[in-house]
User: Which sequence fits this backbone?
């Protein structure tokens, strides 16, 4: 690759993005969780995933953008519940890459200016994606919005709110929905090898003084681009499910860039007073209702999904219980590293070798990754910030800690004065995996497809609402143009599968919950 | 001697962890040696020569060097110690010995039995405040074998699982059948805490207990306030008590 002219402005902006990522990573890791597992070697797989991300993300993001720009994929993401939300895009994409860089910096494998053009490109990709995905709330991250994610447009929220079925503790729908939410969460943790990356939440959205809506997404549920679901998840009929949940007397005070929430009081099932159910993927026109024809049908659908996910949980758990450590480390490293793989699915450029193998430059580190070293190194990398590269001038007071540390190393401006640097880590190299090969079956909204067919259809598909005619009809435009025929058309398209709003258009404003 | 860029760090201090420092020193020595052997510049080394010349065998040699000192690694996933017992410290009681096992936390808060026979054996962080305390039978769940046994035989009624895994995967197939959970690790935001909240199962995380044996009746103070994010951030304790019921 030929060397690009990197400007001062690009470096300034990239370093700002890096610093924001570093501050938030520290806060998330220190306050939001203590991750541990007796089943999975979690820290070893996390470190391996960071290395794989560092060596591969730049090439793979460029490959994705050769088909579809980051901001165009994010337009799709606003209209569906695929794994291109949080934590995948809000946090993991830049931070997995940057933490891999930091790991290598700490071991003397890199200088801060090495892979400089890769770093600038990855952060620019992320910025463009996030600005587009967050365009309705106008922020780059949930952090910037005070930990809130108001992603969806008014027209979609109207449909969610209007189509939701009300429920109360003790009734059939409430029982079925809440049981499903617990089962799907449990299944998600197992699918993702003890991480929360198959689950996400966005919102909250105000309905009235007592009610808020939160949108809960469950991803990678069926036979998909995770080979350990082959067979065990063949009866799971949807790969992505979205559940809008209305909560009463429960204020969601925080929705972070991991897609986790905090509420006051604590969110429990008795606060749930309304639910809906949708699916979506790279081949749909946005959110498609599932079992929403009647309250009874929705209850029955939740029960049916609960049964198949419970069955899949047991089968998957028994499969995992027989894995070797290398298989567990590979599965964890891959599900972490390929957390952004749905970008490639939407662009129609997903390839197994890209997303389901460990690059040899990362793989060589495996002998170092025993449990104790990995736990202590990961703790130093994201928690105590006690590696030499973290240490800053003694005058520094880091956000959240006041200590003279920095989570992520900035790019040096000295390259603009002639300091040498290496532009890129280079192309991905043929990788390996200890896991069973991926069977060529992918559950989609168009049925079970081969990868070639899935990619072909994804490349050919453009949801109408993402076409140039409607794509830029934003919330500001709607505010002042809602009486136009075009606005009516826009809303009617969104309402086309709504059980309550079909055909009503932009002039209809639903009553409060 | 060949110098690396990181060797001239103005502010850097050695890692806080001795193991991390040992490994880091060994790896940076390795990089220095390979750079010198390459005979080329750093720019030619960093993403080309080093990719080929620094290998898994080099990292295995570092592990061998550490083990030769007599050091053995602490394990966190059971599979790690089972596959390579020669490099990890002993696993200890998991499944077979639960009858004689108990968690013994040095900071467990204990107290003699009160007039109603409740003997405090520890504290934990409450995930969700409930109207009442929860009473059940303590049963340790620490291994895949135990989970499989419960999958086959069913989880006994009124089981309060006593677990040291704050993750949500080890007990995934049986979790919903627990009446309560006492977890010796993690926080209320750990995966197990999240799942307990979703399932509506009484749960105390980060529990510090002593002397709770398999099959004993215990009571969890789930009527205590749930521990908040602010409390974790400020270091404020919000303990919920755990009692052994002696009558």
Assistant:
């Amino acid at each position: 690759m030929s060397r690009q002219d990197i400007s001062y402005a690009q470096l300034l902006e990239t370093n700002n993005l890096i610093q924001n990522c570093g501050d938030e990573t520290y806060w998330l890791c220190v306050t939001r969780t203590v991750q541990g597992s007796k089943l999975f070697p979690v820290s070893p797989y996390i470190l391996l995933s960071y290395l794989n991300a560092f060596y591969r993300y730049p090439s793979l993001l460029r490959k994705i953008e050769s088909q579809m720009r980051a901001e165009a994929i994010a337009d799709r993401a606003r209209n569906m519940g695929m794994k291109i939300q949080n934590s995948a895009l809000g946090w993991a994409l830049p931070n997995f890459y940057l933490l891999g860089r930091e790991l290598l910096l700490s071991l003397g494998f890199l200088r801060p200016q090495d892979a400089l053009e890769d770093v600038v490109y990855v952060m620019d990709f992320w910025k463009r994606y996030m600005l587009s995905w967050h365009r309705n709330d106008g922020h780059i991250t949930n952090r910037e919005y005070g930990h809130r994610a108001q992603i969806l447009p008014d027209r979609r929220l109207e449909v969610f709110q209007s189509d939701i079925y009300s429920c109360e503790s003790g009734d059939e729908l409430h029982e079925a929905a809440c049981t499903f939410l617990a089962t799907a969460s449990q299944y998600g943790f197992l699918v993702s090898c003890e991480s929360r990356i198959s689950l996400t939440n966005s919102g909250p959205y105000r309905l009235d003084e007592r009610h808020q809506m939160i949108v809960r997404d469950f991803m990678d549920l069926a036979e998909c681009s995770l080979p350990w679901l082959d067979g065990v998840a063949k009866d799971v009929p949807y790969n992505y499910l979205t559940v809008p949940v209305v909560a009463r007397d429960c204020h969601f005070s925080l929705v972070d860039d991991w897609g986790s929430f905090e509420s006051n009081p604590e969110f429990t099932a008795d606060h749930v007073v309304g639910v809906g159910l949708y699916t979506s993927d790279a081949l749909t026109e946005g959110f498609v209702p599932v079992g929403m024809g009647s309250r009874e049908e929705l209850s029955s659908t939740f029960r049916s999904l609960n049964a198949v996910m419970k069955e899949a949980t047991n089968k998957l758990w028994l499969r995992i219980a027989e894995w070797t450590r290398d298989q567990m480390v590979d599965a964890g490293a891959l599900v972490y590293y390929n957390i952004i793989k749905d970008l490639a699915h939407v662009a129609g450029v997903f390839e197994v070798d890209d997303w389901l193998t460990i690059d040899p430059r990362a793989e060589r580190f495996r002998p170092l990754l025993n449990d104790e070293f990995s736990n202590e190194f990961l703790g130093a990398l994201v928690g105590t910030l006690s590696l030499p590269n973290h240490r800053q001038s003694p005058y520094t007071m880091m956000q959240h800690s006041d200590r003279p540390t920095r989570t992520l190393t900035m790019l040096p401006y000295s390259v603009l004065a002639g300091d040498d640097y290496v532009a890129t880590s280079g192309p991905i190299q043929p990788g390996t995996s200890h896991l069973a090969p991926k069977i060529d079956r992918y559950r989609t909204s168009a049925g079970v497809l081969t990868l070639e067919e899935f990619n072909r259809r994804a490349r050919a598909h453009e949801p109408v609402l993402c076409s140039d005619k409607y794509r830029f009809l934003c919330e500001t435009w709607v505010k002042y143009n809602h009486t136009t025929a075009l606005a009516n058309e826009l809303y009617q398209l969104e309402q086309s599968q709504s059980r309550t709003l079909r055909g009503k258009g932009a002039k209809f404003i639903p009553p409060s919950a | 001697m060949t110098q690396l860029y990181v060797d001239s760090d103005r502010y850097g201090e050695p890692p806080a962890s001795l193991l991390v420092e040992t490994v880091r020193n060994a790896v940076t020595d390795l990089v220095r040696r390979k750079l010198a052997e390459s005979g080329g510049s750093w720019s030619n080394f960093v993403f080309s020569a080093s990719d080929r010349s620094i290998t898994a065998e080099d990292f295995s040699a570092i592990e061998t060097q550490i083990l030769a000192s007599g050091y053995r690694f602490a394990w966190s996933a059971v599979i790690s110690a089972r596959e390579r017992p020669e490099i990890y410290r002993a696993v200890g009681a998991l499944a077979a010995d639960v009858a004689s096992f108990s968690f013994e936390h040095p900071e467990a808060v204990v107290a003699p039995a009160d007039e109603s026979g409740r003997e405090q054996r520890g504290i934990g962080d409450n995930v969700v405040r409930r109207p009442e305390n929860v009473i059940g039978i303590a049963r340790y769940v620490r291994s895949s074998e135990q989970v499989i046994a419960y999958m086959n035989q069913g989880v006994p009624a009124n089981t309060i699982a006593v677990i040291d895994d704050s993750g949500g995967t080890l007990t995934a197939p049986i979790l919903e059948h627990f009446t309560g959970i006492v977890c010796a690790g993690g926080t209320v935001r750990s995966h197990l805490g999240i799942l307990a909240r979703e399932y509506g199962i009484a749960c105390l995380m980060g529990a510090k207990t002593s002397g709770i044996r398999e099959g004993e009746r215990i009571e969890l103070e789930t009527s205590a306030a749930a521990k908040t994010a602010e409390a974790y951030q400020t270091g404020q304790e919000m303990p919920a008590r755990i009692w052994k019921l002696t009558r």
Observations:
- Helices of chain B lie at 18-38, 42-53, 56-68, 78-83, 144-153, 191-199, 229-234.
- Chain B touches chain A through 84 residues (CB under 8 Å).
- The mean pLDDT of chain B is 93.
- The CA atoms of residues 160 and 180 of chain B lie 4 Å apart.
